[in-house]
Amino acid sequence: MTQATFTPRVFSGIKPSGGLQLGNYLGAIKRFVGMQGGDFETIYCVVDMHAITVWQDPAELCNATREVAAGYLASGIDPAQSILFNQSQVSAHAELGWIFNCVARLGWMNRMTQFKDKAGKNAEKASLGLYAYPALMAADILLYHATHVPVGEDQKQHVELTRDIANKFNHDYGTDFFPVTEPVIDGPATRVMNLRDGTKKMSKSGESDMERINMTDDADTIARKFKKARTDPAPLPDTVAGLADRPEARNLVDIYAALADITPADVIAQYSGAGWGAFKPALADLAVEKLAPISTEMARLMADPAEIDRTLAAGAEKARTIAAPILAKTYDIVGMLRS
Ligand code: TYM
Question: Are 152 and 308 within 8 A, CB to CB?
Fold first, then answer.
């Protein structure tokens, strides 16, 4: 069946489980800001329903939801240009999520590497929500007929599952109602690595705080973390190819490139032959220059939680306007009687 034409529309989301780290900023938020005000309608979400797939203290969840919203706003997401809201305020996510639970196949879910990583050896004790989570993520995206989803590399498999769900729904019901969404995974920082182990992803749940840069870290902490970041003894190579098999070096070069809006090749051109004693302080200075205004603005916004709540409420209202007719039409297609 030929694809229907869809409005170019971006949807993406961030879980409010703990604070934001540099990977969220470079791999997601900074790129979301870049897609705003251009060819796409942009919808950005704080996905609180995803957060509770692992235990969250209720008061901390509320606070983290506001903090992620503050991170979006402080980084340049403008509620006049983008729709910004938290997921649980738009109940259609859960409703479409249920329909997609009935479309996704167990065999597909069993292949999800993030579930395996998160559930670990104790999968019997993981929540059913953690397992079903990618079907809810497909609902987040397809509820808005989003055509493009900017994400970091770790979410690629989930966007592929979203495409499988859209295709199966369209096929089973003989329709072209849902778009087959494109993942957008580009730039030098789609996989920011752990500062102590360049083979592991930087994440908010790592064991040691020294592994990551938090968006709320102060200048001294950022400098200390980069100074202590693990590296190999060799200086920076004279080509990007020379970074192969040097994961820690590659990571610091990629972070520098993403922060400075240049390519890794530009970084190498500037620093080839430099030792870490020169490169790490330059990287720390750059990170402080770029991140300090954001963390200061986040703190200012967090001092007025009612204002953040008003922004999220207004965003949820706009999101519901797009979501409601898409959910209603889905119910009609599926054959849900509504009298
Ligand atoms: P989450 O909350 O784990 O991460 C939010 C975004 O940040 C990116 N990211 C990274 N990028 C580069 N390097 C890293 N170290 C790094 N760590 C995190 C993630 O790839 C993501 O883009 N399931 C999603 C949230 C979600 C979603 C959606 C995303 C729910 N529904 C619909 C897109 C569309 C998640 O857990 O992201």
Answer: no
Distance 162 CA to ligand 1 centre (A): 14
Answer yes or no: do 74 and 106 share one domain. yes
Both 295 and 308 in one domain: the answer is no
pLDDT in tens, 35-45: 999 999 999 99
Is the same domain home to 32 and 119? yes
Q: Could you please report the per-residue DSSP string of 175-218? A: ---S--PEEE--STTSSPBPSS-TTSB--TT-S-GGGS-BTT--
Burial (CB count within 10 angstroms: exposed 0-12, middle 13-18, buried 19+), residue 34 = middle
pLDDT digits (tens, 9 = 90+) for 196-226: 999 999 998 878 999 999 999 999 999 999 9
Q: Do 174 and 273 belong together in one domain?
A: no
Cα–Cα dist 60/18, whole Å: 8
Residue 79, phi-psi category: left (phi > 0), alpha (psi -120 to 50), beta (remainder): alpha
In this structure, the answer to whether residues 148 and 72 fall within a common structural domain is yes
Q: Is the pTM of this model over 0.85?
A: yes
**Pocket-testing residue among 30, 90, 154, 213, ligand 1, by greatest number of atoms within 8 A of Cβ:** 154
> Residues 243, 237: contact at Cβ < 8 Å?
yes
CATH number of the domain where residue 257 is located: 1.10.240.10
Are residues 136 and 41 part of one domain?
Answer: yes
- Ligand 1 centroid vs 269 CA: distance in angstroms? 31
